[in-house]
Amino acid sequence: MTLRYALLAMLTPLPAAAQTLPEAQRGTIVAGIDKRAPQLESAARTIWGWSEVGYQEAKSSALLQGQLKAAGFTVKPGVAGMPTAFVASFKQGSGPVIGILAEYDALPGLAQSAVPSRAAIDNKAAGHGCGHNLFGAASIAAAVAIKEWMVANKVQGELRVYGSPAEEGGSGKVYLVRAGLFDDVSAVLHWHPADANGVFTGKSMANISGKFRFHGTSAHAAASPEKGRSALDGVEVMDVAVNFLREHIPSSTRIHNVITAGGEAPNVVPDFAESYYYVRNTDPEIVKDVWARVTRASEGAAMATGTRVEQEVTGGVYSMLASRTLAKVMAANLTQVGGENWTPEEIAWATAMQKNLPTQPPLDSVKRTDLADRGPDGGGSTDVSDISWTTPTIGLNTATWVPGTPAHSWQAVAASGMSIGFKGAVVAAKTIALTAADLFLSPQTLAAAKAELDAARGPGFRYAALLGDRQPALTYRKPTPAFEGKAAR
Questions:
Q1: What's a GO cellular component annotated to this UniProt protein (predicted)?
Q2: Contact at 8 Å (CB) between 296 and 285?
Q3: β-strands 86-92, 74-77: how paired?
């Protein structure tokens, strides 16, 4: 998840919520997760080692599915056209349907050892810079604990785990929503690694992402440049046009890009080049408008350079519409679980890591759980947001990284592969499990959350995915071969 997880300047606690779960049962659930902590750590460490990127998480998905099957869940793999997605279910009679999200994709270009200094890993390209190895492992641990509690106490209802691939730019959950897999769900719970503990109730940014592929004519760059039409020129002219566009869009909008292909040799006029763009704003309508203008910039660049451009939207997500009704329940449980307690060895590791960070908040801030409201707006995007517009949804952050660590960094990768990360994941698993149990026993809370969502969306709301009706972009993390463009001419 690409939300901003640094400590925010203005944080206000949520009011406490009544807890419906008997104290003895709460203790049993917490003890059950403590018992499973070694399995959680083993799964998180293994997925961290694999570091599979979006839609290529075959081993990671299979590992989590296997744990759920062994625990008595019915697992349906390959849902919504995504081979690495799954839905696992445990049902006992009729009652509420509570969903828990699990992610497991890594980020390209962030391979890093679990040490407090920059140390890339040979022959490895990706790393868990957003901690999704922890995310998936902890969610499964929570789900197994809830299932055992349901059996022991004859609790009626259905518990589902949604294996969600390609959160990082692939919009995997959008396809789950579009397929109607949340239509009958009463509430959805999620969490995310961070550098502090808190329940997130602010907005994330809606976004549209996609690739612009320019096709030109190759030629000898010195002997016959007049015969060439540079696809790279198209990419660069588009970049210039978009940079001028920035002055004339709402100031809260973000546009960023990378050139993913630009030629192989300076003495060859490249006949294929590709740029990968993101447009973000908390308002989905602004995102759609700015994306249309970026697209027109690409068309103008192609015209100016005598090239041809093709566009593929690879992702698109809404802004977050978090449930404050559910947040009160989750915040109360996070407070009861408490923050992380590090050993002297972990404190020494974190102290060494902070030397590589631009800010150094107090290390003992990881013990705090009173930072309940993470501020009005996030600085990134997540496909959880689309779920939040269709089903009451709430999530928390736990301190799996050293305070001051930004997401999508090698520092986050390092902590996600060692004990600091695993301890934060256990806090998340306990909080999610207790919150789910409370909700199974509180139809009034679920009804209030549904009423809150209906009011927030407004009358007549109909969900429509920002990425349209395209099928999942299963190859979005793979390079686009130049010859594919030639064959399409």
A1: cytoplasm
A2: no
A3: antiparallel
Alpha-carbon distance 122 to 106, whole Å?
Answer: 17
Quote the number of domains for the chain. Answer: 2
Range of the domain at 289: 206-317
What pLDDT, in 10s, does the model give residues 168-203? 999 999 999 999 999 999 999 999 999 999 998 888
Listed residue (321, 395, 358, 372) closest to 196, CA to CA: 372
User: How do beta strands 74-77 and 254-261 pair?
Assistant: unpaired
Query: Is 313 in the same domain as 229?
Result: yes
How far is it, in rounded angstroms, from Cα 334 to Cα 99?
18
Threshold 0.85, pTM exceeds: yes
Identify whether 465 is part of a domain.
no
Q: Is 154 found in the same domain as 256?
A: no
Total number of residues shown for the chain: 489
Strands 126-127 and 74-77: unpaired
Which one, of 153, 43, 156, 158, lies nearest residue 102 by Cα?
43
What CATH number does the domain containing 393 carry?
Answer: 3.40.630.10
Residues 84 and 32 in one domain: yes
Q: Can you read off the two tokens belonging to residue 102?
A: 């699990």
> Which residues are CB-neighbours of 433 under 8 A, at least 6 positions away?
29, 30, 32, 33, 142, 143, 145, 146, 149
- Which residues touch 32 (CB under 8 Å, ≥6 apart)? 144, 145, 148, 149, 433
Contacts of 114 (CB under 8 A, 6+ apart): 48, 414, 415, 417, 418
* 215/352 same-domain check: no
372 — pLDDT class (breaks 50, 70, 90): very low
Residue 411 contacts residue 201 (beta carbons within 8 Å): no
82 against 489, higher pLDDT: 82
Instruction: Report d(CA 400, CA 419) in Å as an integer.
Output: 9
**Of 276, 226, 279, the residue nearest 252 (C-alpha):** 279
